[in-house]
Amino acid sequence: MIDHLREHESVKLLCELFDVATSCYYEFKQRKPDANRVRLASRIRELFNISRGSAGSRTIVSMLRSEGIKIGRFKVRKLMHEACLASKQPGSHRYKSAKTERPDIPNLLKREFSVTIPNQVWCGNITYIWSGSRWVYLAVVLDLYSRRVVGWALSNKPDSALTTKALDMAWEQRGRPDGVMFHSDQGVQYGSRKFRQRLWRYQMAQSMSRRGNCWDNAPMERLFRSLKTEWIPATGYMNQNQAQKDISYYLMNYYNRQRPHQANDGVSPVTAENRLKIVSGIC
Question: Which segments constitute the Integrase catalytic domain (predicted)?
């Protein structure tokens, strides 16, 4: 009884100090935690951590809705704020303007990035990544329909063997399709005899961006931007083996299967293609 009175006096003193009614304190004390809210906040933190701190409220809303959870952006934003979760955003980037074109390989794509079926248009490009004490080079092939990564390769040399290896992987992974248009920038790797012969063998039409115009291959630029700002450590990787494993997980798992994409109405590339299979039976 005495302890209860002492507690009451202490509560009363603190409430007077902070100008809060004692009834508010006791009401709050008796309030039960919202189990659904706790579970939701926990799942939001999990998704945020999976994205390595890159997912904002819009992305997390899309992820939660893909799991069958009906929720609005305002609530997600509020829960993220309460948990002190702030997504990291990429900075601005200025692109060079076009100068001259390569007449023998025209720009057939002409920025028509919206395609109706898979294996209609593929895009390719190369970027560089710091690994241990040297640069390594990543070549990626992207299917424009769903923005799905269908082929990739990593090497310490940015040559035609690298781009050809990525193309070979894409061709095999996608069931050796016919009639694909392959679009890239005007890098020497894509204009080499070896790479062009491989395109001819696979019966693919070749398209190239105008020289120095990154916007002509914007989906690839966006993929590399996401990879470098969302996933790759700021200091790079310790070695090439670590880079190989981590980049493989990002491209083939997180990016393809989990990360929502605006071009797919907020679902992942794999989910977008699976929806098309259900509707039309297209592989």
Answer: 114-277
Q: Which residues form the domain of 63? A: 1-83
Q: Is residue 93, in this structure, part of any structural domain at all?
A: no
Q: Counting Cβ atoms within 10 Å, is residue 65 exposed (0-12), middle (13-18) or buried (19+)?
A: middle
Mean pLDDT of 24-50: 77
Of 25-29, 117-121, 128-132, 225-229, least confident by mean pLDDT is 25-29
Half-sphere exposure of 157 (CA within 13 A, CB side): 7
Tokens encoding 72: 């609005």
Contact 126, 162 (CB under 8 A): yes
Taken in order 75, 270, 152, 122, is the CA torsion positive or negative?
negative
More confidently predicted of 80 and 23: 80
Domain boundary among 83, 99, 130: 83
Could you tell me if 124 and 190 are in contact, meaning their C-beta atoms sit under 8 angstroms apart? Answer: yes
In a domain, 8, yes or no: yes
Three-state secondary-structure class, residue 151: strand
Separation between Cα atoms, residue 153 and residue 155, nearest integer Å: 7
- Amino acid letter, residue 30: Q
pLDDT reported for residue 73? 84
How remote is the C-alpha of 113 from its chain's centroid?
17
Q: What pLDDT, on the 0 to 100 scale, is given for residue 98?
A: 43
* DSSP state at residue 84: T
pLDDT-based confidence at 113, cuts 50/70/90?
very high
Query: How many domains in the chain?
Result: 2
